[in-house]
Amino acid sequence: MNVSRYISAKIDGADAGSFTASVTKIAIISIAMGLAVMVVSFAILQGFRNEIQGKIFSFGAHLQISRYDTNNSLEVAPIAGPRLQQQLGRFPQVQYTQPYAVKTAIIKTPDEVLGVVLKGIDEKGGQSPMRQNLVAGKFMAFSDTAASNDVLISRKVADKLRLSVGSEALFYFIQNPPRIRKFRVSGIYSTGLDEFDEVYVIGDIRQVRELNAWPDSLVGGMEVVVRDFPRLDATAETLYEKLPYDLKIDKITDQYAQLFDWLQLLNRNVIIFLILIIFVAAFNIVATIFIMILERTNMIGILKALGATDSQIRGMFFHRGISLTVRGILIGNAVGIGFCALQHYFKIIPLDPENYYMDRVPIHWDLKIMLVLNAATFVSSLLAVFIPTYLISRINPVKAIKFD
Questions:
Q1: DSSP percent split of the chain into helix, strand, coil, nearest 5
Q2: What does pLDDT average to over the chain?
Q3: What parts of the sequence cross the membrane (predicted)?
Q4: Exposure winner among 22, 93, 328, 360, fewest CB in 10 A?
């Protein structure tokens, strides 16, 4: 039988109604709330990251490959799409590719005029990630025989031009000679990111080809999704060295640096916050064990007089510390995961899309991170328990028995 564990279990019930019991409850609550806050913080942080990155990647993928051009226009010289896709298919880092082409236009309605960028896409290689941003209507219908006259416009553009699903609008393309096309709004999308919502209209890439008099083999550029996003820089460098010299590669992290810098800042602030929470929880553990030792000084003196070693008495308080740590962790997980589940399924906390790019607080479930947080809380509390227990070796049995 483990004597230290046995005595620890006995005095656990004997503390009821004492000052130690109150302090123990505070320590358990501190650990529970600290862990709950950490679980919720990381779930929300990862949710924000995934939501915003998903919206950005739905427009520009991870990499954009286009031809070098000396002008600053959005409309660049075309490249051979099938040949480039074949070259990119040889790289194991590349997950899939999607051709695109852009064309500046002016939309004119009976009441309003607005400049936009028509981005033509092709779904032959798979469904476009833009589908996830659709909030009204349906996605464009692609035909095998002719270019589709359907377009997707953002909620912001629809409100400015007073357009709705099924509306038709004239698009004026400034070129020589000028061209006019009538397109039908098949759907309305919303990302919450003004960089996209105020500028882009999504259409069929064949419309852009017809306007530019390009054959089917030419595209404006190629969007590339890589398999390992954290290694984006290394992948971009590899592609740059292997692809033809007249092609340039733009990373999504450079194109929208302000958004990725904001996400990085959020991550840094959360880490600092979590370190402070762990420190407070560990401090409470230390204070609680100190109070337990002071209230049990007489008992420590008697146990030493009976022949108990410092290690055995230290183990008794160590088991007490572990017991309240485990209770705090269990309660913290219940509170943190319970709150995340409520937000995930019932969306109880809304957000202003104008400021946060989404209409509710997002939750991302990551079992690995939750296990790491639990382990970090347990280990830090475990180390904190050792600090006050070394005070036991300095307690003199004679003085301890007389201690009042």
A1: 55, 20, 25
A2: 85
A3: 26-48, 270-294, 324-349, 369-392
A4: 22
